[in-house]
């Protein structure tokens, strides 16, 4: 399994943590378009900055979550969605923190894994840390070395092995 990236958004829609492991594959058009030369000479899309990427991810989960709630009712939950290149996994805590992980398409549901990251790492190293701010105004993110090391070890040990 390949893990591309991991994000945490607070209740104010600010990205308070982001970590990238591998670049996400980009869509290059269909093979028939490439064979016909339609993609030749077309400008290649510019890579997004880390902030723009996080805003795009948040906008996607916000829209999909609202669509699921409107179509299915309050009891239905948005868990994940898959494209041809990646799969986005989503977990929302009772305090409206949003944990998002982007992986390859063959990955099973990671809702339990995201919950484990929240309970075992975020709560232990960020929430219980007296030096960590309660709110993250202006996008000031999680700045806890133990949390970052824990996420790195957890992902490498449980997902990438």
Structure description:
It is globular and about 40 Å long. With 161 residues, it is an alpha+beta fold. The chain has a 5-stranded antiparallel β-sheet. Residues 29-39 have low confidence and may be disordered. It is built from 4 helices and 5 strands, in the order ββααβββαα.
Brief sketch in words of this structure:
The protein is α+β, with helices and mostly antiparallel strands. It has helices at 31-35, 50-72, 111-127, 145-158; strands at 3-9, 15-20, 80-82, 87-92, 98-103. α3 runs antiparallel to α4.
Please list the strands of the largest sheet in the order they lie side by side.
2-1-5-4-3
State the end-to-end CA separation: 8 Å
The helix content, as a percent range, equals 25-40%
The low-confidence parts are 29-39
The number of helical segments is 4
Order of helices and strands: EEHHEEEHH
Q: In total, how many beta strands?
A: 5
How much strand?
15-25%
Q: How would you state the average pLDDT, rounded?
A: 81
Radius of gyration: 17 Å
Largest sheet: 5 strands, antiparallel
Q: What is the SS-derived class?
A: alpha+beta
Q: In one word, what is the shape?
A: globular
């Amino acid at each position: 399994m390949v893990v591309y990236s991991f994000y945490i958004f607070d209740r104010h829609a600010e990205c308070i943590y982001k970590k990238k492991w591998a670049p996400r594959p980009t869509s290059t058009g269909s093979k028939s378009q490439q064979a016909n030369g339609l993609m030749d000479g077309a400008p290649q899309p510019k890579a997004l900055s880390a902030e723009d990427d996080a805003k795009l991810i948040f906008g996607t989960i916000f829209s999909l979550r609202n669509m699921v709630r409107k179509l299915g009712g309050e009891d239905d939950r948005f868990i994940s969605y898959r494209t041809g290149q990646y799969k986005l996994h989503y977990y929302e805590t009772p305090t409206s923190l949003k944990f998002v992980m982007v992986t390859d398409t063959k990955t099973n549901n990671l809702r339990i894994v995201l919950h484990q990251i929240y309970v075992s790492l975020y709560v232990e190293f960020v929430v219980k840390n007296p030096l960590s701010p309660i709110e993250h105004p202006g996008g000031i993110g999680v700045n806890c070395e133990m949390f970052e090391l824990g996420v790195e070890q957890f992902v490498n040990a449980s997902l990438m092995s």
